[in-house]
Prior knowledge:
Largest sheet: 7 strands, mixed
Radius of gyration: 21 Å
Distance between the termini: 42 Å
CATH superfamily of the largest domain: Type I PLP-dependent aspartate aminotransferase-like (Major domain)
Strand order of the largest sheet: 2-10-9-8-7-3-4
Strand content: 5-15%
CATH topology of the largest domain: Aspartate Aminotransferase, domain 2
CATH architecture of the largest domain: 3-Layer(aba) Sandwich
Bound molecules: pyridoxal-5'-phosphate
Shape: globular
Mean pLDDT: 96
CATH class of the largest domain: Alpha Beta
Structural class: alpha/beta
Number of domains: 2
Number of helices: 12
Amino acid sequence: MFQTTPSHQGISDKFIKHDSKMLKQIYGSDQLTPYWIADMDFPIASPISQAMQQLVNREQYSYEFDSQTVFKAIAHWNQQRHQLDLNPNHFVQVPGVLSAIALLIRDFTQEGDGVLIQTPVYHQFRRLIESAGRKAVTSPLKLEGDRYLFDYQDFEQQLSSGKVRMVLLCNPHNPVGRVWTKQELQQLVTIAKKYQVMIISDEVHADIVFEGARFTSMASLNYDNSLTIIGSPAKNFGLNSIANGYIYSDNQALREKIKASSVSMSLDHGNAFSLYATIAAYQHGKEWFEKFLAYTQEVRNWIMAFMAKELPQVKAFLPEGTNQIWFDLSGLNLAPEQLKELLSQHAKLALTPGTWFGEINENYYRMNFASPLEKVQASLQQLKTSISQYR
Length: 391
Ligand SMILES: Cc1ncc(COP(=O)(O)O)c(C=O)c1O
């Protein structure tokens, strides 16, 4: 049995996902069920809670760090789960995945350089690139049948222009849910090598991969000019607000450079909660994680079956990984404003607008399904009713 609701109900929080001001600003209403943030609704694994309870009981927070235990635990986890051999001495710790990306953009590109993203993609990528004074160069994914694929021809064309200095890869891909295969990644690496462009691989969703798909880390592809963000326990263990980011590279020169800039900005100062939470997650979280993965796979399967049978006008792309599902609602033949009204005023759902992810039309929305099945069922039933009653 997987526990889907916390045992301590009624404790207040300041979660962004149901923040009234934010919901009103984005959707014009706060009376919505939130599915817009990639954030699970479930209670975390009990070994992590226990580790943090002990820390609370300790009542002391001296400077403290133990990155060797963390890196060993993450390396062991990756060996067991993905047969990925990582050297515990080849990690650099930073405060989070996004700060890792921000740091790497600054360390390895110059102002005005192009950083390539494959759209639609996690919206913060563009923000991080542009706020660092770099140019976001897009190479849209191409849709073949029901699957999004890399567009190698366009990718090569962009790289051959000489303006792109870095590729920011989302692996697995948020929002379209693809888990890139080894062959697909190898082909990308071949082109990047040819033009000597660095690849940064954001692998925060690496563990959330469903039956039939297999995760391949950039770290296993022997590309010297690449850095892998081995994620953090944010998405796989539901620790979004206390996780760290871990950058990995077997290239010593790259690592030294990252370490130096991380230290220069004092980003290497850890936080005791994330330290103990991360160790507990990777050392003792396996049982919980497997239940979580099986549960969200069941939710995914239910959504796919429901959409195919009950709402065939809405196209749902099968997530091979991640807890996000990508919908194309063009088949409803509604104007963008009507679609927005239908979703937020009638179905009362806060889904992430597809336009956030770049170069996609307003008929696309993303839904986070790391939620109790009954809740998802009620919401999609409500969507079906709203569609049938809408003008
Ligand atoms: C692809 C991707 N990278 C990074 C993040 C955020 O990472 P962090 O909160 O650890 O900075 C997310 C969160 O949704 C994500 O989907």
